[in-house]
Amino acid sequence: MALLIDRLALGRADGIISADLSDKMNALKSEQLYASDEDSFDLKRMRLWIGEYSALAARGAEIAGIATEDRTLAGPHGDIPLRLYNPEERGATLLFVHGGGWVMGGIDSHDHIARWLAAEIGARVVQLGYSLAPERPHPAARDEVVAALSSVLADAGAGPVFVAGDSAGANLAALAILRLGQDLRRRVTGFVSIYGAYAPEMHLSSHRLYGDGRFGLSEPQMRWFWNLYAPHLPPEIRSRDLTPLTADLADFPPTLCIGAECDLLLDDTLAFYGELTKAGVDVSLALWSSLPHGCLHFVAGVASVTEAARSIVQFVLARTAAHAARSFAPAPATPVAAAVAADAVHRPLLDVEPVFATGRTRLHGSLAHRIAADIIGGRFPPGALLPREESAGEAFGVSRSVYREALRTLAAKGMVTSQPKVGSKVASRSSWHLLDPSVLEWRFEMAPTESLIRNLFELRKIVEPSAAALTAMRRDEQDVARLADALSRMARGNPRTGAWLNAIVAFHHELLHASRNEALSALWPAIQTTLRWSIKLQMMLPTLTLAHDPVADHARVFEKIASQNAEAALTETALLIDAALADTLTNMRRTNYDAAAARAPDAG
After folding, report:
1. Residue 225 within a domain
2. CATH for 536
């Protein structure tokens, strides 16, 4: 079944913005006086741009009937402007912290979003105009959000209080929650992180893959924002003070993490989600398919955005309904994080180095590898007689006992047969144990063919989607926590490091073993070897070439497993393997081309 699934059949094209939003954005371009330029670093122009852009995006989708009231709050750096929507509402309260890279935007630029939230949720929404950098760098904005949140909690009494933020606003909101005292923090009913900015180092995979600005926000722009916001902090302080990823999240409130598929900051969301999961926080993940960073400005006017944004409404309404039964006493520790930690004691970390069934540190293992390479390379074709034991010293420079053990190793893998009075012969390829990890490793080392790669990925596409479907039906909370941990490490890792490789391998390991099917799990050694080789192929290239974001692809699989949608888990896993095969073949051809070019004589 899975073999019949591909992206074209499903009408899927990764990295393509939804048609209705794309049409709307293109229509606005002719009217913009301050068109966005991905290489623009003019602060005055950028501030004019966000005001114009947000007004044009909301035009035609005005939300009527929402009463507002402007106030000020005494803050640590002067008065903080506030705007209350539904000010007389005495149910739930939501504090909304706007985005804009900490340097632009304000109450007016995000007024449409706040109005929509107030209308859809029926709550009192409070938006604040915090101080902008570089005039007021970190920690001014964060401290003002802390002051506003403390005031909202005091005014709300026993009522539910939510915090939401988009982009830089999500960063500020998360850090503000962490700055509260423990008792106040536990009074926050829920947090909504909307495509948040959480990685000041700008080293995640989505930063590299989408850094060219194809979806609007570019890596140079984002680095510019971070540097304007906190120019005075050295790297070690930035990674501690500017992100919740390195904080103690044990008492963080229930959270909805929202990531946009076509977004430079997608992996920021996934990394934050993973850290919350490891801390045992009640956290949900929503991936807005085919939408870019900043799309919420088009809510109520573009159907794809409005449909996606309803995940915010559902989260707040569900938490509000459950609030009456919520106790503010310290909740018992959830078993998830403890189970992951305990399980790690019994599950060794997967090593970055290849896993050989015959260790090369032993002499006969090294000789077995050498002879296997000669067999695969054609020096000893099928049917050929291998040197006799008494000739081992002359042929290979080893003793008869070492040679005998090497031949036994190869015989156990189906590559050699021994006959009395005849000797050892190379077996036919049909007898080789092709899925043996060592045999696979040897074949990968001897310039594997595209046919071999396609065969192995077809095997993966038969096995892993079905395993994912079973996992979606059978997984428990510990399985979800381990998958989330692997996803988090993948999102935070550098694609050229062993940590990145280990995270991907760990994700697929959990996906297969959580199916609770021993026959499927028995295929793991072959799948692991194929995974390691294909990922290492990417890591050895001077420039990384990926047609798809592997973190986003894995996140979609995770989301379907976590929501126990077996059919969707099968489909997303099949699509993930399709993308991995396409990337592997592309990089393999590049590697072969570079090698051929290096061997060619100098034309000069």
Report:
1. yes
2. 1.20.120.530
The full DSSP string for 221-245 is HHHHHHHHHSTT--HHHHHHHS-GG
Q: Is 22 a catalytic residue?
A: no
pLDDT at 13: 53
Q: Do residues 537 and 587 make contact, with C-beta atoms less than 8 angstroms apart?
A: yes
Query: What is the per-residue pLDDT across 304-360, written as a single tens digit (0 to 9) for each?
Result: 999 999 999 999 998 988 776 554 444 444 433 343 333 333 333 333 333 333 333
pTM above 0.90? no
| pLDDT beneath 50, residues of the chain | 1-12, 327-365, 593, 595-604
Selecting among 111, 166, 263, 267, the annotated active-site residue is 263
The active-site residue out of 109, 131, 151, 167 is 167
8-state DSSP, 133: T
- 510 - beta bridge partners? none
Amino acid making up residue 167: S
Long-range contacts of 16-22 (CB under 8 A, 24+ apart): 16/262, 16/290, 17/215, 17/262, 17/290, 17/291, 17/292, 18/289, 18/290, 18/291, 18/302, 18/304, 20/302, 20/303, 20/304, 21/290, 21/291, 21/292, 21/295, 21/298, 21/302, 21/304, 21/305
Based on the structure, what is the number of domains in the chain?
A: 3
Residue 430's domain comprises: 363-435
30 with 85, same domain: the answer is yes
Name the nearest CA neighbour of 179 among 195, 163, 196.
Answer: 163
Report residue 403 as tokens: 């040679």
d(CA 392, CA 412): 20
User: Is residue 20 among the annotated active site residues?
Assistant: no
Write down the mean pLDDT value for the chain. Answer: 83
Given a contact cutoff of 8 angstroms between Cβ atoms, the answer to whether 83 and 127 are in contact is: yes
Q: Is 3 a member of any domain?
A: no
Q: Are residues 148 and 207 in the same domain?
A: yes
Residue 297 contacts by C-beta under 8 Å, 6 or more apart in sequence? 53, 54, 57, 58, 110, 112, 113
Say whether 167 is catalytic: yes
Residues 521 and 603: their CA atoms lie apart, in Å, by 52
Catalytic hit among 293, 297, 508, 513: 293
pLDDT tens, 246-279?
999 999 999 999 999 899 999 999 999 989 988 8
Do 400 and 510 fall within a single domain? no
Residues 376 and 468 placed together within one structural domain of the fold:
no
Residue with structure tokens 């304000």? 106
Q: Which of 529, 527, 506, 525 is nearest to 462 (CA)?
A: 527
Nearest to 375, CA basis, from 364, 387, 363 = 387
Residue 172 lies in a domain: yes
Domain-located, residue 374: yes
